[in-house]
Amino acid sequence: MSRERPINADEPRSEESERVEAEVGSDKAAAQPPEPASEPAAGPKPAPPQVRNRRSIPGAVKAVVALVLLAIVFIVVAVIGGSNGSKDEEQPAPAPSIAQGEAKPDGNTATTQTATELGYPAFATNNTTRIGGSDPAANAAATALAVFPSTVPAQRPAAVAVAGEDDWQAALAAAVLMAPPVRAPLLLSTPDEMPDASSEALTALDPAGSKDTGNTAVFAIGDVAVSGGGKETKVKGGDAAAEGAAVAALRERLTSSPPAHFLVVPQSAPAFAMPAAAWAARSGDPILFSEAKKLPEAAAAVLKKHPKVPVYVLGPADAISSAVVNEIAKIGENVHRVAAADPIANAIAFARFHDGSFGWNVNDPGHGFILARDESPLDAAAAAPLSASGTWGPLLLTDNAATLPDPVREYFLDVKPGYTNDPTRAFYNHVWVIGDQEAIDVNQQAEVNELTELAKIGGEG
Q1: Can you give the pTM of this predicted structure?
Q2: What is the pLDDT of residue 75?
Q3: Which residues of 308-317 are buried (b: 16+ CB within 10 A; e: fewer)?
Q4: Which uninterrupted H or E stretch holds 78?
Q5: Residue 371 phi, psi (nearest 5)
Q6: 139-164: string of b/e by CB count within 10 Å (b at 16+)?
């Protein structure tokens, strides 16, 4: 069935869908995960954004453009901007600025140019919302304020987690602190000072600590600067395995209970590890890190403390070897691998997977999703609070700015919502797009919007 797309929709959809591989094993069967049939082809690198010369616009159209742009500004302020208190409270902090790029050229130049001139709503469409920061720190700040608008004290988190801009492993590990009951969103910093976006967000969020956070307002993971905030708890830094183990111990101490499951992800293959952040925030299952061919002692020590807790290894054998899986199986009662040959297929396999109480099991319509670039693990951590609130959905990956990968397109089509008679009683999908247009451009967002649109599938009108 043919459907009209908002812009740039004359590129045909691929007939072939890439199959994902998911291996699930027990402690006896986890030794030999299936080898990928072939290496995936690398996607083309996106061209740098180009600025177009626009033709002159009549006065009446200019007025329409102004109104549309004004509407977009109000949307941005309403969803991403966070104020701090009522009229009787302290002065609101300014929201982090969210940079927007130019729409990229494509095969239908006239269509793209017209959409740009008319103020195409790149921030939000009817089925997508963009967190369009110019870097992960801005995206983390905007996400935190989207989940916790903080206009009144009841909307503020009790605590926030702060990780380093140069330490994606610590940021992914910190995602587990977003799970109930702690519910601490992530901000990013450096050893010397907090970026402006993080500092402004921290001021707006104004965490004060609670019983669930051990009265801590800021959990500082590793060597990071924190400007302001209340009581601070430092989590010792170190290598990836040590940081993952330390955050897991912190989570257990705060909740006074062991986790339901552990996630073990590759510490040197970030694209395969990224989907773990969304699940950790959703479930409270800690993330531990492993080398490709050896399980680090820090991670092994955590698993030895809880030998009956199931372990799920995320990624194929070239990211975490069968030898590591066997080593984990000797420690615990059961270990499972969820994997596919490339990061995009791996994320889809994890979104589809379930085993008892573990896994998203998103194989039908009516869900939220997060879409981020596979080259930005910090964005996966920044967006994790969106998977633990609102539409609660898994992370999917795209490998270039301009084009949605075929496996993701096919997956969206497979879970596309439909209705027969009454659309108001249907299930709906929604996608958060993470990053500015240099990361994921407006054309790809438009295609995602169409793929998630509710469709009439028959019956009486």
Answers
A1: 0.76
A2: 38
A3: ebbbbbbbbb
A4: helix 59-79
A5: -120, 120
A6: bbbbbbbbbbbbbeeeebbbbbbbbb
